[in-house]
Amino acid sequence: MDLYFSPLACSMATRVALYEAGQPANFLEVDPKTKQVRNDGTDFNKVNPLGLVPTLRTDDGVVLTENAAILQYVADQFPRAGIGTASNAERSKLHQWLCFIGTELHKGLFLPLLDKKAPPEAKTYALEKYVSRLDYVEDHLKGREYLLDHFSVADAYLVTVINWTMATPPIELSKWPALKAYYERLRARPSIAKAVAEEFELYKAEIARHKAAA
């Protein structure tokens, strides 16, 4: 399968999931500015007209978009990895967390803070309206190791999103000690440590390229 990604973007969650499953994939890096696939110079917009990562092309040639859908697909494809769920009730809980992370944290809180073009008022509004979602996660993680009763693709997504706090100074993780401990613990997990290290190097190379071209 082919995973179209950009370094340290939300697509990193799928890389983590694939590493957890021990499954090979073709990782195709998309330049977030030009939408060019760095591996072969092709136009990513021809794969996904929205130009958004992650995008996954399955071994059957089916193109999937949207992080939650892709993560669930990977979990379902490799059940022995244990990163999905078995029962219907737990599956709904997994969906709940994937949707929450995608809407309340990723899009609601972090996207305005990371958007260099967003006006200060938008960033202030995002903090005022959505920072309480971190309180919700904090309360849930007290006394828990993972979002569910085991590591799942929801954890891969949450760690990916919380990783962005290194670029969002208004959010200081020390205010949420259970979340901070969870993040630090999972950053040391082999699949996550490998994904972060690899994508951080790619991110630095990407920044250097754009500086050189400016």
- CATH top-level class of the largest domain: Mainly Alpha
| CATH architectural type of the largest domain | Up-down Bundle
End-to-end separation in angstroms reads 34 Å
Strand order of the largest sheet: 2-1-3-4
Q: Tell how many strands the DSSP assignment holds.
A: 4
Helical percentage: 40-55%
Tell the overall outline. Answer: globular
Share of residues in strands? 5-15%
Number of separate domains: 2
Average pLDDT confidence is: 96
CATH topology of the largest domain: Glutathione S-transferase Yfyf (Class Pi), Chain A, domain 2
Keywords: Transferase
Protein name: Glutathione S-transferase
InterPro entries: Glutathione-S-Trfase_C-like (IPR010987), Glutathione-S-Trfase_C_sf (IPR036282), Glutathione_S-Trfase (IPR040079), Glutathione_S-Trfase_N (IPR004045), GST_C (IPR004046), Thioredoxin-like_sf (IPR036249)
GO molecular function, one term: transferase activity
